[in-house]
Amino acid sequence: MTEKSETDLLVEIADGVATVTLNRPAALNALTIGMKERLLAALEEIGTNRAVRAVVLTGAGRAFCAGQDLKERLLPDAPGLAEELRRRYNPIVRAIRDLPQPVIAAVNGVAAGAGASLAFVCDLRIAAEGATFVLAFGRIGLVPDSGATWTLPRIVGAARAAEMAFLGDTVRADEALRIGLVSRVVPSGELAREAAGIAARLAAGSPRAMATTKRLLAVSFDRDLVAALEAEATAQYGAGASLDHAEGLAAFLEKRPPRFTGD
Ligand code: T3D
Question: Does the reported pTM lie above 0.90?
Answer without folding.
Answer: yes
